[in-house]
Batch of 2 targets.
Target 1
Amino acid sequence: MNNKIITLVTGANRGMGLELVKELSKKGQQIIMGSRDFNKGQAAAAGIENVDVVQLDVTDNQSVKSACKTITDKYGKLDILINNAGAIFDHWQKPSEISQDSLRADFDLNFFGLINLTQTFLPLLKQSKQAKIINISSMMGSMTEALNPESEVYRASAVGYQASKSALNMFTVQLAKELNKENFPITVNSIDPGMVATEFGGSTPEQSKEMGAKPIDFGVARTVELATNFDNKDTATFSNTHGPVAW
Ligand SMILES: NC(=O)c1ccc[n+]([C@@H]2O[C@H](COP(=O)([O-])OP(=O)(O)OC[C@H]3O[C@@H](n4cnc5c(N)ncnc54)[C@H](OP(=O)(O)O)[C@@H]3O)[C@@H](O)[C@H]2O)c1
């Protein structure tokens, strides 16, 4: 079992997380599906091979610790951590009016929760010969694209969500530099999946498609590429299927 790639995907009971579980399990990886509602995770995992489900609410420290203990006891290492769980709590609220509650909700999950989870799992990642941390970010977090009138995200306005993904990108860079400096064989990268037809933001996948969202397999393509290529030692990058994304 120890030779198998052990991969944890957070927020994996639906959307891109579930698609990542399906595609990476087909590639022979042992997947641990993090789901904040265990029963939803079990239902979603039905029929998929090489999958364990753990209850995992990224914003709940007890849940994060307990999931880490379960995985440590069973596998003793973690090769890939895909920080996929994420949500948007503010829509079109003016930056001059956005509530503190919305801002905090965005940051609690997409930034503070993600960092706490990553810190908790780092000792387990350090047991791997070559580990990867893949942070699912968004082009919505790119300052450069937010200022580019030609960009598909130029008109978006969700300052809490966008800032939480920009902040996540800085965590990617700084953690990558720290691990590299200390010679740990762990890469840390941010991915932009693009606008993808899931239930993200409360729309149905059909509604998202009508607005131009891409199919779900397109959304996970860059992550699958990175998660299956152990020759690629790039770290501190931000990319999508087209190549590098401007920070
Ligand atoms: N879809 C897009 O267009 C798009 C674009 C750019 C980036 N992204 C990013 O891609 C990632 C996946 O999004 P998606 O489109 O697949 O969205 P989705 O269909 O809404 O799925 C989000 C997943 O995150 C889980 N989640 C929410 N809060 C959580 C928490 N506190 N702890 C653990 N899990 C939690 C959800 O679980 P429940 O079922 O329990 O709610 C669900 O499994 C997110 O990080 C998102 O920001 C999406």
Note: The CA atoms of residues 70 and 224 lie 25 Å apart.
Target 2
Amino acid sequence: MVLKIIIVAILAFLAYILLFKKSREKEISSKKNEKITDEMVECPTCKTYVSQKEAIISNGKFYCSKECLENKEG
Ligand SMILES: [Zn+2]
């Protein structure tokens, strides 16, 4: 039956699209994560720029060192 073949072809095509989309989303999100860790942020205490990778995070703020974290104002 030709109709059966068409239905199977459509299902296979949809499965392919879904798998392709998922793998693309994974790729994009992993790239996003890389970007976040490389981003430069300003230390609120000494105004020095540090990468998020090396910064100390406290209350949603990025500090360049433990000293700045302890000497924070406000
Ligand atoms: Zn600092």
Note: Helices lie at 2-38, 66-70.
